[in-house]
């Protein structure tokens, strides 16, 4: 087991991870190339130690192809936290900036396509160095040549 904690934003978060690298491929779990399975427990409290969530302990499980030499418990925890920060950052922008939750697009593959287009736009703007996606989107609206450059397209007058 490995554990760590962080303090910030008016709370303390405790994280513990258990991992095993003793998996014979195909013997215990049916995941190709699986090398490790792990369990992460998170507990969030206020600075005074009182629980901030109704269910005090959150548990997540994972499977990875990374060997114990490539990713020890500390590294697995770091990778898992990095994954969720990316997810949260993307979904927040889609929910707040693009107001995706109120979208009227609901039939067939259209919702999936709209989400893919939003992800592409956000990724291109971030790769271009944008920190404020809403502002960068407005910039693209008024400067279509900039948007075309992001897509690798040249505009012909």
General form: extended
* Class per helix and strand makeup: alpha+beta
Q: Count of helices?
A: 4
How large is the radius of gyration?
Answer: 21 Å
The tally of strands reads 4
Weakly predicted, low-confidence segments: none
C-alpha termini separation? 63 Å
Largest sheet features: 4 strands, antiparallel
Strand arrangement within the widest β-sheet reads: 1-2-3-4
* Helicity, as a percent range: 25-40%
| Series of secondary-structure elements, N-terminal to C-terminal | EEEEHHHH
Report mean pLDDT, rounded to a whole number: 87
Number of domains: 2
| Strand proportion | 15-25%
What does this structure look like?
With 157 residues, the chain is an alpha+beta fold. It has helices at 73-96, 110-127, 133-142, 144-151; strands at 2-8, 11-20, 36-46, 57-64. The protein has two domains: 1-71, no CATH class; 97-157, no CATH class. Helices cover 38% and strands 23% of the residues. Strand 1 and strand 2 form a beta hairpin. The radius of gyration is 21 Å and the shape is extended.
